[in-house]
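Bumping my old thread because nobody answered last time. Still need a sequence for this structure:
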């Protein structure tokens, strides 16, 4: 039996920020669920008290995917997230419940994990801008929280890089009927939707799916967020000083099931200009154009879907 959608809110009498914390947007990424339930127990048993504002916890955002212990129920909830007038897939029904809930808050902390070994990192939105793709005015707030979550690696550039990948896909498939993911809005997930509602938020990738430390990373991040936003009576966590700031700049799709990586890449492995990252099924080698990092490598990607991203150092968080 499918679980109903569940959210738990605690509100103080003193005004303050309205925070929402989400786990298991992808059903096999359960570190956030574990951390949220631990935090709920802390509040219910009096170890932590909400002193100002309000916080809403969503332990399992996608109950169907969580029940099936896989990334998706019927599709990826964290793509093209928006309410639907004619819901068809289960994730459409989630969006119709989740999107209004997000819009009633100021700040989102979305807890995820990733499939290959690697160091936890946080994804932030763009710098302040008035552009057409992702106009934004809360960059300083996002940066301040990102530095205090308890991780040192901070990555930006998601939606712009995704949009460039969409354009590459369109060019490659000229003459074919457009696919559902051939639109920049297909890259819109929880945090992007939050920004479009006038709020702000961060996606924290807490480590590998099965890393026993990932729930601890998520739990510490929730506590640090509550403290930084002054929702609990606790000192503001110190800002990270050894930041590894990176910007995504390129995405490469897998074209064929026989496309192969040159080695078992993990996220943020360094790659040198001219180094072979992978080989297409026809023998064409994919070479790194500049020194950088491989991000989100997926050896199981379907043909026509994102295979890996590339990032390079950026001075956004330079002291």
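Sorry it took so long. Here it is:
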């Amino acid at each position: 039996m499918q679980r109903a959608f569940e959210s738990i809110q605690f509100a103080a009498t003193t005004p303050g920020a309205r925070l929402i914390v989400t786990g298991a947007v992808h059903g096999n990424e359960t570190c956030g669920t574990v951390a949220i339930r631990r935090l709920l127990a802390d509040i219910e048993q009096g170890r932590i008290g909400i002193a100002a504002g309000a916080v809403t916890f969503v332990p399992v955002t996608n109950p169907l995917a969580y029940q099936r212990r896989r990334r998706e129920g019927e599709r990826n909830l964290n793509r093209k997230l928006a309410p639907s007038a004619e819901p068809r897939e289960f994730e459409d029904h989630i969006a119709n419940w989740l999107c209004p809930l997000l819009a009633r808050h100021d700040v989102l902390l979305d807890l995820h994990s990733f499939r290959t070994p690697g160091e936890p990192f946080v994804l932030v939105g763009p710098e302040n801008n008035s552009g057409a793709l992702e106009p934004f005015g809360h960059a300083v707030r996002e940066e301040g929280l990102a530095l205090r979550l308890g991780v040192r690696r901070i990555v930006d550039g998601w939606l712009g890089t995704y949009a460039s990948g969409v354009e590459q896909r369109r060019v490659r498939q000229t003459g074919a009927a457009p696919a559902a993911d051939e639109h920049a809005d297909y890259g819109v997930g929880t945090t992007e939707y939050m920004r479009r509602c006038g709020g702000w938020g961060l996606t924290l990738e807490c480590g590998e799916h099965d890393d026993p430390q990932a729930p601890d990373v998520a739990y510490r991040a929730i506590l640090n967020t509550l403290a930084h936003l002054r929702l609990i009576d606790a000192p503001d966590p110190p800002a990270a000083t050894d930041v590894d700031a990176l910007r995504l700049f390129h995405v490469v799709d897998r074209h064929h099931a026989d496309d192969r990586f040159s080695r078992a890449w993990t996220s943020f492995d360094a790659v040198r200009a001219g180094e072979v990252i992978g080989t297409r099924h026809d023998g064409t080698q994919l070479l790194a154009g500049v020194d950088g990092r491989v991000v989100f490598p997926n050896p199981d990607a379907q043909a026509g879907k994102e295979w890996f991203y590339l990032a390079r150092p950026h001075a956004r968080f330079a002291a």
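Helices lie at 31-44, 63-68, 90-103, 139-146, 158-172, 190-196, 214-228. Let me know if any region looks off to you.
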